[in-house]
């Protein structure tokens, strides 16, 4: 095989391997250890190939890895095609630029900075997306590690951004270590190993309490019915009354087993002021008779305005508490008006907050609840079936970030109770039976976390690191008199395999 064909074959193989690993290591049901490996082939290629090859390979790998998400974006959550193209293709191009920056820094004798710029840049991209996009932090790589609890604990310090940094930082460090330049390798290895050891050590320390040690006597029950047809049921219709009867028939038994709070899914019914008593009367009576708070998700129409609501019918028989969803799903909930106030279960001393589904796809509201004294969140949800794992793990991640217990009841999804460390107390799939319910003890312990107090400090630190790395790159290039490599290497645009002379220092 002649050299040009061999180089092309190597580039195609690296691209295909990274794309395959990204396909299985990201998305709706990722394999967590594959996420760590996914960028490695194209990162290694970048330090041996030209700029064109590097950019095209990295961009194509990301684009190929995200192909499984096209159908989900277009058909399931119904994002307009232009937005899907900009999201998927745009992120692929950004990934190509990030890998290209790492390559350039290695060529200029900065392997440690080259290793750091990959995770720092991607954290900056994720954070910017979470702030600027209505979808928030939805597509962060951090969620791929939601079942790897020692790694996930990093989120309690840094938010999801620190987990993303670890996942991309390790393969970037490995690639920089094996780049064809001897100087700086030891420093890269020591720094990478130290960061990883600190993160895993902190995770192990935070998980040191035995599972279930802090369970109290108060319990939460989650229940859900998956209906065969999509849509909302008018509560005053025959179907609505029958559905309500199925829910109310189960609540006394759950209360008898110790449930202090019962959470129903999101948008189970639709009601207005005239028909709301059909729902409110039996639930309020059940709540008072059995001394249990009942949180019901419904569409509430008032004065022509639609609200995605969660209504708490208190155990003490007092006035119901209404919570309106803050973060609405773009497109699917464009007809709804968002809420702007937090809500707490009466009698809990502001310990138990209420949120709805997509509210937990973004970190800010959950952090506000924790700062207000909440130790648990009760969350009605409605997923799309195929994304049930991801949405459930997003909620768990929010709990780890802020030290909260999260109890989420989703139809077409999972019923999950997790503690402040992300340990799952109970879990069930709503499609496993015609009527699914779970009961779990609420942990008595919450956790104070640096992320609750300091917010997105780590994302800003990564943005600063990215700027410093790019400034360093520009400065070195200028000092080299505009030569692309600054070290007497082949031109950056050359697609031949690069052989770099060892640095003099």
TrEMBL record:
InterPro entries referenced in this protein's UniProt entry, alphabetically: Apolipo_AcylTrfase (IPR004563), C-N_Hydrolase (IPR003010), C-N_Hydrolase_sf (IPR036526), LNT_N (IPR045378)
Keywords: Acyltransferase, Cell membrane, Membrane, Transferase, Transmembrane, Transmembrane helix
Segments traversing the membrane: 79-100, 112-132, 159-179, 186-205, 457-476
Cellular compartment(s): Cell membrane
Membrane topology: Multi-pass membrane protein
PROSITE patterns the UniProt entry points to: CN_HYDROLASE
SUPFAM superfamilies attached to this UniProt entry: Carbon-nitrogen hydrolase (SSF56317)
GO process terms (BP): lipoprotein biosynthetic process
Matches recorded under Gene3D superfamilies: Carbon-nitrogen hydrolase
Domain (CN hydrolase): residue spans on this chain: 221-444
GO CC annotation terms, alphabetical: plasma membrane
GO-annotated molecular function: N-acyltransferase activity
Name of the protein this chain belongs to: Nitrilase
Record lineage: Bacteria, Bacillati, Actinomycetota, Actinomycetes, Streptosporangiales
């Amino acid at each position: 095989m002649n050299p040009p064909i061999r180089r092309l074959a190597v580039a195609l193989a690296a691209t295909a391997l990274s794309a395959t690993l990204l396909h299985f290591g990201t998305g709706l049901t990722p394999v967590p250890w594959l996420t760590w490996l996914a960028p490695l082939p194209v990162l290694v290629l970048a330090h041996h190939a030209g700029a064109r090859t590097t950019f095209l390979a990295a961009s194509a790998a990301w684009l190929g890895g995200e192909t499984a998400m096209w159908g989900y974006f277009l058909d399931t959550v119904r994002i307009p095609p232009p937005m899907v193209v900009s999201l998927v293709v745009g992120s692929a191009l950004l990934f190509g630029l990030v890998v290209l920056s790492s390559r350039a820094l290695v060529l200029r004798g900065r392997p440690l900075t080259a290793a750091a710029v990959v995770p720092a840049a991607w954290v900056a991209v994720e954070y910017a997306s979470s702030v600027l996009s209505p979808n928030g932090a939805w597509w962060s790589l951090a969620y791929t590690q939601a079942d790897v609890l020692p790694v996930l604990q990093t989120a309690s310090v840094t938010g999801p951004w620190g987990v993303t940094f670890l996942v991309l930082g390790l393969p970037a460090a490995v690639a920089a270590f094996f780049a064809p330049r001897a100087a700086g390798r030891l420093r890269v290895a020591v720094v990478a190993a130290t960061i990883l050891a600190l993160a895993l050590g902190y995770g192990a320390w935070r998980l040191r309490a035995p599972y279930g040690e802090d369970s109290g006597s108060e319990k939460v029950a989650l229940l859900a019915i998956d209906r065969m047809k999509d849509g909302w049921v008018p509560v005053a219709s025959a179907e609505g009354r029958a559905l309500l009867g199925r829910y109310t028939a189960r609540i006394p038994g759950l209360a008898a087993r110790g449930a202090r709070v019962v959470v129903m899914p999101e948008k189970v019914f639709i009601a207005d002021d005239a028909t709301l008593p059909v729902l409110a009367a039996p639930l309020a009576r059940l709540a008072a008779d059995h001394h249990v708070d009942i949180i019901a998700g419904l569409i509430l129409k008032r004065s022509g305005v639609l609200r995605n609501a969660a209504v708490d019918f208190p155990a003490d028989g007092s006035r119901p508490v209404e919570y309106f969803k803050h973060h609405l799903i773009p497109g699917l909930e464009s007809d709804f008006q968002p809420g702007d106030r937090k809500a707490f279960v009466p009698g809990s001393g502001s310990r138990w907050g209420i949120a709805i589904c997509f509210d937990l796809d973004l970190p800010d509201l959950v952090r506000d609840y924790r700062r207000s004294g909440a130790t648990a969140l009760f969350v009605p949800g409605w997923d799309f079936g195929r994304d049930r794992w991801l949405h459930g793990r997003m909620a768990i991640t929010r709990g780890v970030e802020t030290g909260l217990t999260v109890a989420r009841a989703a139809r077409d999804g999972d019923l999950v109770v997790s503690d402040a460390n992300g340990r799952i107390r109970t879990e069930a799939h709503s499609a496993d039976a015609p009527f699914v319910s779970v009961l779990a003890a609420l942990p008595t312990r919450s956790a104070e976390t640096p992320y609750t107090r300091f917010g997105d400090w780590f994302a800003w630190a990564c943005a600063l690191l990215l700027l410093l790395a790019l400034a360093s790159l520009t400065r070195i290039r200028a000092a080299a008199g505009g030569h692309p490599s600054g070290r007497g290497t082949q031109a950056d645009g050359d697609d031949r395999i690069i052989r770099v002379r060892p640095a003099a220092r």
